[in-house]
Amino acid sequence: MEYHCNNNTHSDGSAAVNAASGSNNRKPPTAQQLIRDNVKYLIEQLEAGHSETLTAFLDAMANFHHYSFGNVLLIARQKPDATRVAGMFTWNQLGRRVKRGEKGIAILAPMIGKRRKKQDTNTKTDDEEANKSSLLGFRRVYVWDQAQTEGSPLPSIGEVTGEASVYLDRLREFVQVQGIALEYNETIAPALGISYGGKIALLPGQTKAEEFAALVHEVAHERIHKSERRTATTKVVRETEAEAVAFVVSKAIGLNPKSSADYIQLYHGNAELLMESLEVVQQTSAVILAAITMEEPVPQEAQEPQTASDVTPDTQEAGYLPAPEEITEAAQPAA
Question: CA 75 to CA 334: how far, in whole Å?
């Protein structure tokens, strides 16, 4: 499979979250309702000729690969130019303040707690169940982009550079750990890379940045397209998915991949396929980025206060969410 190198209007945050549930008075929508609503919005934009909306969604995947798929879609829909978001409490801890009049970006945060159950004669079992935390649902919370704040310079912890060399070495290591053979072969020209299923061939003589993007593209094929899919795909969709993963990962490490209207080929009138494609692009990109950036937990001083029993993968992602006591204040534009 050949690898090819190759501002959007947004709605109010509350409207974006409420659209799936249909009313401000109802409880927040489920994650799947939220995803479907935002994919529907994306389709409307694509059918209206706004292919840049899809590129903005891919940009959000690059900037927020720690976040869930649904929240990435929400951020991209409301503020497509966002680069780093945090709750008001976190910004204050970092010495910054939300600018007067700035509206928050609505996303969903998990509610973790203990469910109350009627006791029976087995007291020990009841006690064990009572001590187990579980996901009770989701609540709407608000975050703001860095550009919506002012104050002290931000720490550089966790920033990446546009130098591909170190990430290329880590990506090669990741490929090896996955049990995928990697070779360099001039005979694959004019292709820059080919995935054979368990083996990847790259064209020698590419620059570090070109080789990095080509290898990410082929790794995406290995991870996405060698297994069963819920929805039937075409060769064009599969190539576009792999290209989108290369775009997201390259941009996330500071490279400057060319955006292209060709990403619209992810949509062929099939909403289910588009939703599945975006989800696999986001998940595959996140796995690759976690491996090559050797990510560590968010520094303690940058985390929102939380008890040990509240920590789950989703709440760790919500390190850039308002603390519970900040939610009421955060729901209003900054005064």
Answer: 18
Joined tokens for residue 192: 């820059």
- 147-164 pLDDT, tens digit per residue, is 999 999 987 544 555 678
Alpha-carbon gap, residue 328 to 251, rounded angstroms: 35
Round to whole Å and give the CA distance between 334 and 101. 5
Mean pLDDT of all residues belonging to the chain? 78
Instruction: List the strands of the sheet with 134-145, edge to edge.
Output: 85-86, 134-145, 105-113
pLDDT in tens, 161-208: 567 888 999 999 999 999 999 999 999 999 999 999 999 999 999 999
> Locate tokens 């009049």: which residue?
101
CA dist., res. 162 & res. 134, Å (int): 40
Which residue do the tokens 């976040």 mark? 67
Please determine, for residue 230, whether its predicted confidence score (pLDDT) is greater than 50.
Answer: yes
pTM for this one?
A: 0.73
Pair 141, 87: CB distance under 8 Å: yes
State the pLDDT at residue 305.
30
Beta bridge partners of 113: 134
Contact 64, 72 (CB under 8 A): yes
State residue 251 phi and psi, 5-degree precision: -65, -35
Q: Give me the mean pLDDT over the 212-219 stretch.
A: 95
Quote the percentage of the chain above a pLDDT of 90.
50
